[in-house]
Specification:
Blueprint lengths: L3 E5 L4 H17 L2 E8 L5 H20 L4 E7 L2 H12 L3 E5 L2 H5 L7 H8 L3 E6 L10 E5 L7 H15 L2 E8 L14 H6 L3 H12 L4 E7 L2 H11 L4 E5 L2 H10 L2 H8 L3 E6 L6
Helix pairs in contact: 1-2, 1-6, 3-5, 6-8, 9-11
Amino acid sequence: MYRKILTAVNEHLNSEVTARYALNLARVCEAKLYLCFIAEKGQPFTSLDRAEEAIKRIFIEAEQMDIEVETITETGDPARKIGEIVRHEGIDIAFAATRREDVERRFYAGTVARRLSLNLPCSIALVRVVHIGRIHPREILVPLKARVNHVEERAYFTAKIAQAFGSEVFLFHATKPISKFFHGELHLTPLEWEKKLPEDISHYMEHMRRYKIIHDGRLVPGMAGKTIAIEAFSKRHDLIIMGASQRSLLSSILKGNPVEEVLKDTPCDLIILRPRHENT
C-alpha cells in the first residue's frame, strides 16, 4: 500500500523523531523514503544547519537499513512546496511533526498541520512528539469510533507500525454510558467484547488477526477525548494512533473534536492519521 513515504524534516528535534517513525515504516513496507526540507524565507543559517545535520543522520540510518532514500531541499512556503513534491513524486503517505502552535491554539485553525491535512492528495500522518528519544513503542493505543472510515488502510498502518517496533496493539472504544456501567467498568471476555462491537471495529480486528499482530480490546463508557488520554496515562501506553477524516477536520474549525482534545492532553506520542487510500 505504501511504496513511497515522505517525511518533512526541519531544525526542530520533534521533526527528526517523526522522521524515524517514517523511516521504520519504510523499512517494513520496503518503501522508498523521501527526506524533505523546506527552508522558509528569511530563516537563519543556524536553523538551516540543524536541519541539514538532521537529514544527514536520517539518511545514514536509512542506508544502513538498505532503504532506498532521497533528499529534497527547496525554499518557500512549507505546505505549498510539500504539496507540489507529493504530487510530482506520487507519494503514498507523508509524515509531519505538529508544531507548538498546533497545541497552544485551536488545532487545524490556520496552521501548517491543518493545511497539509486538508490539501495533500496522499495520506498524512501528523505526529506530536511527547517523549524525545523514546521511539520504540511497546504498547500502542488505538481509539476507534463506531464508524471507522478507511478500515483497511488504518489497520494496515497500525499493523506496520506495530511490526516495525514489535509492539502490542490495544484497541479502545469509548461508548455512551448505560445503566450497568454506573457500577464501574464493564469487564468482558474477548468473545463477549467482540459480540458487542460495532461492525467496523470487528472488521478492524479481523485485519489485525490477518497481519498476525498481537492485540487486545477494551470497551469503556465516557467522553471520547478525555477518556482516551486517561486510558493512555493509566495504562502507560507509549503511542496513540488516531484516525481523522477530512470531514472531522473541517468540523473541528467550528466546534472542535476528540483529536484536538487528545492532541493537547496526550501523555505519550500521538500519530493522527488522515487516510486517503480506498478499501480494496
